[in-house]
Amino acid sequence: MIVWMDGIVFKVRVNSKVINKIIYLAVGLNREGRKGVLGMWLGKNKSASFWMGVITDLNALVIDDNLNGYTKTIHQSI
């Protein structure tokens, strides 16, 4: 599976102030060519720590059969 991740900035009015909000998106493409949204998260700004939370959430979707080194590599990435 190929996964694209991006953050989209939106201007939102809150209590008569305009602030930025970020929608973090993860979209996957499988071998059959089917795309699907893996998740959407709402944040205040683009940050490495928020992306780490997104990757941690996506890690919960990973299912493997303990290929040689695969599981260890995935868990070290978060």
UniProtKB/TrEMBL annotation:
Keywords: DNA recombination, DNA-binding, Transposable element, Transposition
Transmembrane annotation, as ranges: none
Keyword Metal-binding recorded: no
Protein's UniProt keywords contain DNA-binding: yes
InterPro entries, alphabetized: Transposase_mutator
Primary role: Required for the transposition of the insertion element.
Family designation: Belongs to the transposase mutator family.
Protein name: Mutator family transposase
Protein source organism: Chryseobacterium profundimaris
Lineage of source species: Bacteria, Pseudomonadati, Bacteroidota, Flavobacteriia, Flavobacteriales
